[in-house]
Amino acid sequence: MRYTLETGGLVCPFPLIDAKQKMAELEIGDELCIRFDCTQATESIPNWAADEGYPITHFAQIGNASWEIIVQKA
Protein backbone atom coordinates (compact mmCIF):
# COMPACT_ATOMS: atom_id res chain seq x y z
CA MET A 1 0.00 0.00 0.00
CA ARG A 2 1.02 3.61 -0.40
CA TYR A 3 0.57 6.11 2.39
CA THR A 4 0.98 9.88 2.26
CA LEU A 5 2.58 12.04 4.92
CA GLU A 6 1.99 15.79 4.58
CA THR A 7 4.66 17.77 6.41
CA GLY A 8 4.33 21.12 4.65
CA GLY A 9 5.01 24.02 6.98
CA LEU A 10 7.18 21.96 9.33
CA VAL A 11 10.81 22.99 9.72
CA CYS A 12 13.61 20.45 9.85
CA PRO A 13 14.10 18.03 11.48
CA PHE A 14 10.35 17.47 11.96
CA PRO A 15 9.58 16.11 8.45
CA LEU A 16 12.26 13.46 9.01
CA ILE A 17 11.08 12.68 12.55
CA ASP A 18 7.50 12.26 11.32
CA ALA A 19 8.67 10.08 8.41
CA LYS A 20 10.61 7.80 10.76
CA GLN A 21 7.58 7.41 13.03
CA LYS A 22 5.20 6.68 10.16
CA MET A 23 7.60 4.25 8.47
CA ALA A 24 7.84 2.26 11.72
CA GLU A 25 4.09 1.58 11.44
CA LEU A 26 4.24 0.25 7.86
CA GLU A 27 4.63 -3.28 6.58
CA ILE A 28 7.54 -4.39 4.40
CA GLY A 29 6.77 -3.44 0.80
CA ASP A 30 4.57 -0.49 1.73
CA GLU A 31 5.48 2.93 0.36
CA LEU A 32 5.42 6.28 2.11
CA CYS A 33 4.97 9.44 0.03
CA ILE A 34 6.44 12.29 2.06
CA ARG A 35 5.48 15.81 0.97
CA PHE A 36 7.58 18.60 2.45
CA ASP A 37 8.75 22.17 1.94
CA CYS A 38 11.86 22.20 4.13
CA THR A 39 14.93 22.49 1.89
CA GLN A 40 17.14 20.59 4.36
CA ALA A 41 14.86 17.55 4.05
CA THR A 42 15.91 17.18 0.40
CA GLU A 43 19.14 15.78 1.85
CA SER A 44 18.15 14.41 5.26
CA ILE A 45 15.28 12.19 4.05
CA PRO A 46 17.24 10.51 1.20
CA ASN A 47 20.24 10.05 3.52
CA TRP A 48 18.04 8.42 6.16
CA ALA A 49 16.41 6.16 3.54
CA ALA A 50 19.84 5.06 2.29
CA ASP A 51 21.06 4.39 5.84
CA GLU A 52 17.99 2.22 6.50
CA GLY A 53 18.20 0.40 3.16
CA TYR A 54 14.85 1.82 2.00
CA PRO A 55 14.63 2.29 -1.79
CA ILE A 56 13.47 5.66 -3.09
CA THR A 57 11.03 5.03 -5.92
CA HIS A 58 10.24 8.68 -6.72
CA PHE A 59 11.71 12.08 -5.84
CA ALA A 60 10.49 15.29 -7.45
CA GLN A 61 10.10 18.99 -6.90
CA ILE A 62 6.38 19.71 -7.08
CA GLY A 63 6.40 23.47 -6.57
CA ASN A 64 8.70 26.43 -6.10
CA ALA A 65 9.70 25.23 -2.66
CA SER A 66 8.03 21.87 -2.18
CA TRP A 67 8.99 18.28 -2.89
CA GLU A 68 7.68 14.77 -2.63
CA ILE A 69 9.65 11.62 -2.14
CA ILE A 70 8.37 8.06 -2.08
CA VAL A 71 10.28 5.66 0.15
CA GLN A 72 9.60 1.93 0.20
CA LYS A 73 9.92 -0.07 3.40
CA ALA A 74 12.30 -2.93 2.73
Could you walk me through the main structural features you see in this protein, from its secondary elements to its overall organization?
It is a single chain. This protein is α+β, with helices and mostly antiparallel strands. It has a single domain (2-72), classed as Translation Initiation Factor IF3 (2-Layer Sandwich). It is 32% helix and 35% strand. The protein contains two helices and four strands, in the order βαβαββ. It has helices spanning 14-25, 41-52, and strands at 2-6, 31-36, 56-63, 66-72. Strands 1-2-4-3 form a four-stranded mixed beta sheet, covered by helices on one side. A hairpin with a 2-residue loop joins strand 3 and strand 4 (66-72). The chain is globular, with a radius of gyration of 11 Å. The mean pLDDT is 97.
User: Strand-residue fraction?
Assistant: 35-45%
Distance between the termini: 13 Å
Shape: globular
Mean pLDDT: 97
The strand order across the widest sheet is 1-2-4-3
CATH topology: Translation Initiation Factor IF3
> Helices and strands: which structural class?
alpha+beta
Helix content range: 25-40%
Largest sheet: 4 strands, mixed
CATH architecture: 2-Layer Sandwich
Number of helices: 2
Instruction: Detail the poorly predicted runs.
Output: none
Count of separate structural domains: 1
Order of helices and strands: EHEHEE
User: Mind telling me the CATH class?
Assistant: Alpha Beta
CATH homologous superfamily grouping? TusA-like domain
Give the C-alpha Rg. Answer: 11 Å
SS elements, strand count: 4
